[in-house]
């Protein structure tokens, strides 16, 4: 420790001044994302372009494997060491906003008069997942529904016309499924249809939409009580299980065991109809997609259309300075400047209102089923908002496993799920 | 002036210092911190709040914790007990002069040398409804078994992997024990007319007892700590039937961010392992082995 307190004070003063000067000269930012090769490649391109144009305000880009990413981000936010901007998935946002871990997005800094005007620039519902208490907390870069992928060849083999006979409702799946399924004695050698069953997040995406189609919700409006064991929940569960138990067109043990990339069952011909996201078009590749048709997510009631919707969006760290927050807005504005480029580079639709009318998008509308994805996004709804969403996902996933794999009664299984969910909610 | 004797003492301390530092920094300190954390509510984002025994109460009321606890016990016994006997049988076999013994020893060691994640992924493929195991049992007329999607078989499937991986390791430990038994004892017994079984029960087994106890303790501890296989192969499912304590702790802490509750579960697991070890050490001491 210095003997002269004056010198000590001067050192502190100089440190502060230098710190202030450096932060005002170089508004450098850091940006974290989850790992997704096409997405990361495009982000890197954007960062490189930005850094060339803004040599005094460079962005450092890093991405991490999806599972540890969330843990890293949460830990980093709590220790004030997170990146200045970071990409998050919609379902996890309430966990952050409930603890003030995200800075509100200022639409005026993105070039909009206010949030209402910004909403108009996006597809209906597509900003909903990122708005809390009237404030926007993240700006979407991709949005995707879950849609139904069908194997054209299998349809034609079964005497069905894939362009006319594709299923519109859950009941239709049974009808066409009975023609598509292949069996050897009691054993299903080719499933007509299956739900993905490898992860609780996927389960929640489609099952939440199904419950909504029957007029229900996972939680009550206050978000503090589980209502998944309602009539709508039971009906959704009965629909979920009827293909394997009553109609014998589906074998859940196959999808359950085909972990990591369950949609692979479709191009491999193990299943004729499968529910997956828009990114699967790129994952399957053009050769496989020649035999695949994408149709809207099946409905319980065509008058009450609901499809699952999820997305990724860029958020701002609330711990950064005001000037850095401004710079972060500038950077986000730059990142979202070209919706078509996002689509062509990542294969996920960008939820801009005018997306289908953008020049050069016609080909994707014709050949990459973009119309279907966009129409599904328009009636899409993000999953239940709750800061306990991960526990809710797991409880519902277990409820489905009990019914589908073990044969439990839907009502009792959902009652148990509700007990688990209520316990989790009580610990908020 | 430091005497030579004291100098030796200082050098001795310096030699063990790195190990002691490692023990304190990476083992003892986190242990104390985890114990402390178990009395707090902490989600990584908000400051910790003291809640007394609430985390332990929550665990007591949580059926998933009970399920994980019992799954861990079943897994621990299901893996360890076959390991004790099969590894001993393997060691006895490899201790005999058989053709190609060095090659067989090497081959048996491969499961331990392989990366755990690779092993997990390979077994996952083998357990697929249309995977290798079902294909093989299909040849002998057994119907397809849904190894991983049935609550009845999922944990047993993981136990089989654990046993497969553990046998070579403990086999090698037994083998080292067997080879440390002087041959003179066996030769003397043979001259006295003792048969193979008598030599095994009256010479080999008593002299191998310290190794056996070591294998018992290590196999119990390593099997109760299993984490990667449930994570990669089953994700704790179906319906929590393969959710073991370490997986429960990981999920509670790093998925649900209930760090206090995860620390409480870790403390309970530590106590379980501690008393198991203590019990076997007592047995070891009582038997003067």
By DSSP, the count of extended strands of chain A is: 12
Structure classification of chain B: mainly alpha
Radius of gyration of chain B: 24 Å
The geometry of chain A reads as globular
Instruction: Tell me the count of domains of chain A.
Output: 2
Biggest sheet: strand arrangement of chain B? 1-2
Main β-sheet of chain A: number of strands, strand sense, barrel status?
10 strands, mixed
> What's the count of strands of chain B?
2
Structure description:
The complex is a heterodimer of chains A (428) and B (289). With 428 residues, chain A is an alpha/beta fold. Chain A has 17 helices and 12 strands. Chain A has 2 domains: 204 residues, Periplasmic binding protein-like II (D-Maltodextrin-Binding Protein, domain 2), CATH 3.40.190; 207 residues, 3-Layer(aba) Sandwich (D-Maltodextrin-Binding Protein, domain 2), CATH 3.40.190.10. In chain A, the strands form 2 sheets. In chain A, strands 1, 2, 3, 6, 7, 8, 9, 10, 11 and 12 form a 10-stranded mixed sheet that branches. A two-stranded antiparallel ribbon of chain A has the order 4-5. The mean pLDDT of chain B is 89. By secondary structure, chain B is an all-alpha fold. Classes of the chains: A alpha/beta (428), B mainly alpha (289).
């Amino acid at each position: 420790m210095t003997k002269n307190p004056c010198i000590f004070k001067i050192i502190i003063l100089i440190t502060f001044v230098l710190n202030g000067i450096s932060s005002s000269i170089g508004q450098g930012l850091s940006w974290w994302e989850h790992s997704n090769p096409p997405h990361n490649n495009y982000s890197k391109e954007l960062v490189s372009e930005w850094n060339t144009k803004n040599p005094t305000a460079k962005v450092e880009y890093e991405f991490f494997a999806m599972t540890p990413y969330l843990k890293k981000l949460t830990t980093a936010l709590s220790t004030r060491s997170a990146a200045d901007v970071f990409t998050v998935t919609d379902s996890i946002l309430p966990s952050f906003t409930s603890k003030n871990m995200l800075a509100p997005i200022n639409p005026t800094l993105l070039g909009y008069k206010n949030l209402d005007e910004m909403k108009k620039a996006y597809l209906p519902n597509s900003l909903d997942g990122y708005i809390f208490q009237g404030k926007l907390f993240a700006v979407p870069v991709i949005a995707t529904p879950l849609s139904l992928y069908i194997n054209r060849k299998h349809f034609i083999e079964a005497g069905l016309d894939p362009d006319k006979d594709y299923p519109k409702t859950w009941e239709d799946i049974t009808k066409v499924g009975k023609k598509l399924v292949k069996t050897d004695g009691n054993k299903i050698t080719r499933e007509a249809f299956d739900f993905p069953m490898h992860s609780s997040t996927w389960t929640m995406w489609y099952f939440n939409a199904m419950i909504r189609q029957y007029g229900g919700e996972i939680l009550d409006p206050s978000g503090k009580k589980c209502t998944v064991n309602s009539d709508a929940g039971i009906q959704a569960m009965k629909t979920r299980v009827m293909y394997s138990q009553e109609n014998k067109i589906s074998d859940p043990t196959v999808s359950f065991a085909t972990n990591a990339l369950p949609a692979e069952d479709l191009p491999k011909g193990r299943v004729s109809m499968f529910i997956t996201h828009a990114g699967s078009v790129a994952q399957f590749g053009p050769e496989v997609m020649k035999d695949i048709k994408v149709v809207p997510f099946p409905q319980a009631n065509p008058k009450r259309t609901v499809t699952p919707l999820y997305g990724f969006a860029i958020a701002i760290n609330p711990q950064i300075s005001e000037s850095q927050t401004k710079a972060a807005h500038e950077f986000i504005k730059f990142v979202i400047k070209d919706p078509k480029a996002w689509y062509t580079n990542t294969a996920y639709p960008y939820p801009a209102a005018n997306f289908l009318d953008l020049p050069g998008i016609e080909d994707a509308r014709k050949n990459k089923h973009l119309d279907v994805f966009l129409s599904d996004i328009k009636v899409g709804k993000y999953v239940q908002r709750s800061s306990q969403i991960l526990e809710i996902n797991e409880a519902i996933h277990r409820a489905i496993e009990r019914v589908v794999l073990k044969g439990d009664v839907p009502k009792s299984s959902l009652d148990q799920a509700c007990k688990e969910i209520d316990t989790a909610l009580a610990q908020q | 002036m430091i005497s030579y004797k004291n100098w030796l003492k200082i050098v001795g301390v310096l030699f063990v210092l790195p190990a002691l530092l490692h023990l304190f920094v990476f083992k003892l300190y986190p242990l104390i911190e985890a114990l402390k954390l178990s009395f707090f509510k902490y989600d990584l984002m908000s400051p910790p709040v003291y809640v007394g025994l609430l985390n332990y109460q929550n665990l007591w009321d949580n059926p998933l914790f009970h399920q994980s606890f019992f799954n861990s016990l079943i897994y621990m016994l299901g893996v360890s007990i076959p390991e004790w006997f099969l590894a001993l049988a393997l060691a006895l076999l490899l201790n005999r002069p058989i053709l190609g013994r060095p090659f067989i020893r090497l081959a048996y060691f491969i499961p331990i040398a392989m990366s755990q994640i690779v092993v997990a992924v390979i077994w996952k493929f083998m357990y697929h409804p249309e995977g290798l195991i079902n294909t093989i049992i299909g040849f002998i007329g057994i119907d397809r078994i849904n190894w991983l999607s049935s609550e009845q078989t999922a944990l047993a499937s993981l136990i089989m992997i654990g046993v497969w991986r553990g046998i070579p390791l403990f086999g090698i430990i037994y083998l080292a024990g067997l080879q440390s038994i002087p041959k003179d004892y066996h030769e003397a017994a043979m001259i006295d007319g003792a048969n193979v079984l008598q030599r095994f029960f009256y010479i080999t087994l008593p002299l191998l007892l310290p190794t056996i106890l070591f294998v018992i303790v290590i196999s119990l501890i390593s099997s109760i700590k299993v984490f990667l296989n449930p994570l990669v192969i089953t994700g704790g499912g179906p319906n929590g039937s393969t959710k073991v304590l370490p997986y429960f702790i990981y999920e509670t802490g790093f998925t649900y961010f209930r760090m206090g509750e995860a620390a409480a579960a870790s403390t309970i697991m530590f106590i379980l392992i501690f008393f198991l070890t203590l019990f076997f050490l007592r047995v070891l001491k009582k038997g003067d082995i």
